[in-house]
Design goal:
The protein has about 200 residues and is α+β, with helices and mostly antiparallel strands. The longest helix is centred in the N-terminal third of the chain and has 43 residues. The strands form two sheets. The protein has a three-stranded antiparallel beta sheet with strand order 1-4-5. It is elongated, with a radius of gyration of 46 Å. The chain is built from four helices and six strands; from the N terminus they run ααααββββββ. Helix content is about 65%, strand content about 15%. Helix 3 packs antiparallel against helix 4. It has a domain of about 60 residues: Nucleotide Exchange Factor Grpe, Chain A, domain 2 (Roll), CATH 2.30.22.10.
Length: about 200
């Protein structure tokens, strides 16, 4: 067995030496090819300058696109602010039309047309309230409710034996809320205990 392993070693050594010699012979050949394929410094500089020119051109184009986008966005924002109320105004125009019709009708009636004028104004008021409700505007019910400074603005106090203290007795101006948020507080008179 020892003889066999020695024979294998002897055969392996010359094969390894041949491989190493081939590698050494190939290395100089590779070195001699490298200088011919490596670009010169001038060529590298020209390539870098060309790439820089392309990148600068891309940068300028992107910058122009960004500026155009900013202008477009600003114009859209201005248009939105200018025409934001378009829908609500379209809903209010029929109310204006009905008020004009009621006045015209009252002028033609002369005297004695108070009842028809009152009915026309009531119908217009109902139409107006429905138009506001479409946009989330609802009145605040205050009379008889406890005074709440978040929803009511007290204009004064009235002595009242019929109402508990700090209760809204009279509504001077109706308040409104927009989708649950205060739009305008209700102007109220608040009850206070009578002086004995």
């Amino acid at each position: 067995m020892a003889k066999k392993s020695e024979k294998l070693k002897e055969q392996a050594l010359p094969a390894a030496e041949e491989t190493a010699a081939e590698t050494v012979e190939e290395a100089p050949a590779a070195e001699s090819e490298t200088p011919e394929t490596t670009p010169t410094l001038e060529e590298q500089l020209a390539a870098a300058q060309e790439e820089a020119r392309k990148n600068w051109d891309l940068y300028l184009r992107e910058r122009a696109d960004l500026e155009n986008f900013r202008r477009r966005a600003q114009k859209e924002k201005e248009d939105l602010a200018r025409f934001a109320n378009e829908n609500i105004l379209k809903e209010l125009l029929p109310v204006l039309d009905n008020l004009e019709r009621a006045l015209e009708h009252a002028r033609q009636e002369g005297s004695g047309g108070e009842e028809s004028l009152r009915q026309g104004v009531e119908m217009t008021l109902g139409l107006f309230a429905k138009s506001l409700e479409k946009f989330g505007v609802t009145p605040i019910q205050a009379e008889g409710a406890p005074f709440d400074p978040a929803w009511h603005e007290a204009m004064g106090q009235l002595e009242s034996a019929d109402h508990p203290a700090n209760t809204v007795v009279k509504e001077l101006q109706k308040g409104y809320q927009l989708n649950g948020r205060l739009l305008r507080p209700t102007l109220v008179m608040v009850a206070k205990a009578p002086v004995a």
